[in-house]
Amino acid sequence: MLQLRPGCECCDRDLPPDSREARICSFECTFCRDCTETVLGGKCPNCGGELVARPVRPADKLAKFPPSAERIHRPERCGRTA
User: Per its UniProt entry, which superkingdom is the organism in (predicted)?
Assistant: First the structure.
């Protein structure tokens, strides 16, 4: 099951579970659409994999299958400073 991480690893922008702006790789590294398109060129800086739109978990499933609270912020991997 996808973790649905709460923020962009590059800019730390909030990405709630219903966000259509979230992008993920096959390892579930999570980025916002803006960073994916303007900074990362569609590739994950951690694994080199393709970044694609993260699916939205149906609202009625969030109570039983909550999103992750683990926030990862590694701007240095995106060529940014904290």
Answer: Bacteria
